[in-house]
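Dear colleagues,

As part of the handover before I leave the project, I'm documenting each prediction I ran so the next person doesn't have to rerun anything. This entry is a single chain, and its sequence is reproduced below.
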Amino acid sequence: MTTTLLSDILWSLATELADRRPEHWATPEDEHGDGDLRRTIVAAMNQHGWAPDGIPGLEPHVWRLHETGVIHLRSVFNGLPPLAFSEMKANPSNWCMPTEDANALRRRLIPERIESASSEDGMRDELDDCEHPLKAQLDRQESFKWTEGRYTLEEAAKALAAHAGVRQESMLQKLKVAAETQSIPTFEPGRVDRYRYRGDGNHVREFYEEVYWDNLNQWLDVEEPRISYRFPNPKGNTSELAADNAVLPALRSNEQSEEVVTDCTPIGEPNSPVQKQRWQEQQILRVIGELGYVATELPKPPSGRRGVKAEVRERLGWGSANAFNKAWERLRDFKDIKDAES
């Protein structure tokens, strides 16, 4: 199960809120180059709050959502949940949550966030009606991302899983290490100057920083030469782009896969046995989360009642019990599914 550090999602949301209100930190002419510093200060206030001026922070909201079961915080050290707000606030880098919880947190705290260039429904209409000051900026960033062939690390891992049949979580971890060590240059949305990490290994945000298609391919040439798939040149072969676009619209929605896949038909039909297996495993993990369980902490069923496995199989509705059972056992072998310790 992919997890996200609390410190990463907090800082991502805090900087996004700062960028939505540039009047708090930006000046028409930044002669002394202080804009980035002022932006960082505003982002810190967004995260922690500032009581003297009545500025609310993200951290109390996160704690409330944890208490009500909307998200599930766990200690990086031993997997236990926090018992008090002070524990969480002391060091957000010590806590993580399932990535699907991080996405839910983002949607809950910034509900009108534009998720993709294809979101032309009520969300974008609301921004049009309100003449949102950052609508043009968000549009430019999204258009720039598509036309330049940039991907978040999460999008890159999903594309490789879909096209090459690799394990998404394993590939994501490799890409995060590559980003942290600068083996793959990373960039903030809409920016062309390289992003530099703080060097403590805890600040690679798979849902935020972006990488270029050609840098990904260079990394694959060196680190994964047996993977034949390569990311397409956005200004090149139209057939390659068409194949990639069969998967990317769903990946770039930043929504959970259940909102895109509503039956047993995968996005981009798997064209090899390995890809088919990876897809089956992803669907099982998706439904486990849908049902409100944590894949690595599955509860034992009460005596005489069916367990999580039976619930997942019923929800998926696959015709072949054999295929389901084999996929379930593979996930157990890879430790993606584990029983909760009693």
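Confidence is low (pLDDT under 50) at residues 113-135, 249-271. The beta strands are 3-5, 74-75, 95-98, 150-152, 210-212.

All the best with the project,
I.
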